[in-house]
């Protein structure tokens, strides 16, 4: 199979300053992969002619297809054309149809067109014009030496239309690229990245096509499996074969694929079992229940939640016994157990989950920040309580508590119910 090296360059100081996120590169990479082009490099360069020229020179040495977004507007800091002319010595000419479109735009709005707008109609002689059906500035494709250069506006909706309608069909036709690249993410929880990689080392070291790579995520660890093939069906067949090899070694920690979240996994388990859940949340302050309620159809599994941050709410609303709090404290296995159990009775649920602990920054009841107790109770089942110690700032501890709660609940539902 051909190995066409593709590169994406974003031009604009606003990208470097963080004023605008470079979502263009992500979107283009996804579309290129779908059409069989391997993206080897992303680059961002500010609005400085010398630096843009240097970037273009470097890109020309290493890439077959170079897609540049931004720097095609009417102002002096739009210098993508000038930079490319420096390295190519190609002549620039005014493209008549593009100029007519720009003039018509201002005429229709009864506005005076300033002379600098003519810059947007400049093209390299012999370039293929990429019509901008959404905005004014056209794009162009230029073959120079051993590389194909694609210049597009940086406005996402303009760029996306031009890539889809013109650029990709043209590149596929002129490069002979007829393969596809497909990826899937396999998501795991309850196992660290290093251990997961160790368990899959034979697969990872022997990879060729598909490729396999572990990635740390907010919710556990992911394995990305990427296949290149002559058709989507063949690519998915390769991915499925590798997926089964991976799951045969680590399937006990697997919870979903691609964009599936832990909340969605738990939601599905609750729905399939016809169970309603209630939550009693102290340090998490409703974060757990919010994740479930955000999912479509949440009313089919959620009874409700109680944010019992204050001790009086634990006693008066959730009915945790004063004796438990006096003897063991609010941050304890005993309190977490009663919170989970009583959430079921108070809210009429089949299963309850509780969170109590110290988010920080100060210690509380003799417990250091990060100490968390999570309780799970189902009608007719013995209550399960897990003590955890998390690292991080206040919000990180709360976030990790919620993720751990979903992990424990998933395991409980799969094994106990």
Automatic annotation (TrEMBL):
Domain MoaB/Mog per the UniProt entry, residue ranges: 7-174
Lineage: superkingdom: Bacteria
A Pfam short name: MoCF_biosynth
Record-stated family: Belongs to the CinA family.
HAMAP family: CinA_B
PANTHER family: NICOTINAMIDE-NUCLEOTIDE AMIDOHYDROLASE PNCC, NMN AMIDOHYDROLASE-LIKE PROTEIN YFAY
Protein name: Putative competence-damage inducible protein
Organism per entry: Virgibacillus siamensis
């Amino acid at each position: 199979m051909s190995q066409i090296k593709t590169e994406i360059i974003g031009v604009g100081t606003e990208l470097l300053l963080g004023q605008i996120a470079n979502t263009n590169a992500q979107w283009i990479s996804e579309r290129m992969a779908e059409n069989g082009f391997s993206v080897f490099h992303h680059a961002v360069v500010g609005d400085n002619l010398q630096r843009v020229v240097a970037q273009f020179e470097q890109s020309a040495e290493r890439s077959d297809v170079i897609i540049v977004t931004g720097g095609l507007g009417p102002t002096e800091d739009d210098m993508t054309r000038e930079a490319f002319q420096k390295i190519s010595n190609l002549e620039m000419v005014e493209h008549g149809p593009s100029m007519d479109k720009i003039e018509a735009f201002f005429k229709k709005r009864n506005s005076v067109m300033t002379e600098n707008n003519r810059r947007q109609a400049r093209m390299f002689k012999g370039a293929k014009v990429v019509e901008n059906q959404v905005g004014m500035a056209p794009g162009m494709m230029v073959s120079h030496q051993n590389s194909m250069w694609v210049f597009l506006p940086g406005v996402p909706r303009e760029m996306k239309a031009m890539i889809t309608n013109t650029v990709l069909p043209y590149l596929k036709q002129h490069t002979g690229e007829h393969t596809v690249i497909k990826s899937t993410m396999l998501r795991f929880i309850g196992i660290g990245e290093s251990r997961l990689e160790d368990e899959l080392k034979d697969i990872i070291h022997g990879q060729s096509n598909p490729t396999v790579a572990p990635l740390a995520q907010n919710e556990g660890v992911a394995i990305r499996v990427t296949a290149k093939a002559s058709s989507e069906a063949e690519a998915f067949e390769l991915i499925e074969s590798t997926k089964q090899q991976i799951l045969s070694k680590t399937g006990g920690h697997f919870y979903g694929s691609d964009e599936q979240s832990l909340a969605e996994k738990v939601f599905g388990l609750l729905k399939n079992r016809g169970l309603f859940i209630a939550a009693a949340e102290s340090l998490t302050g409703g974060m757990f229940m919010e994740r479930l309620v955000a999912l479509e159809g949440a009313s089919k599994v959620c009874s409700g939640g109680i944010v019992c941050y204050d001790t009086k709410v634990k006693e008066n609303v959730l009915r945790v016994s004063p004796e438990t709090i006096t003897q063991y404290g609010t941050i304890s296995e005993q309190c977490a157990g009663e919170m989970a159990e009583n959430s079921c009775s108070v809210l009429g649920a089949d299963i309850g989950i509780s969170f109590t602990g110290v988010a920080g920054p100060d210690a509380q009841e003799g417990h250091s920040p990060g100490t968390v107790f999570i309780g799970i109770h189902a009608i007719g089942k013995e209550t399960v309580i897990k003590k955890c110690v998390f690292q991080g700032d206040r919000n990180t501890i709360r976030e990790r508590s919620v993720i751990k709660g979903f992990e424990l609940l998933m395991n409980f539902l799969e094994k106990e119910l």
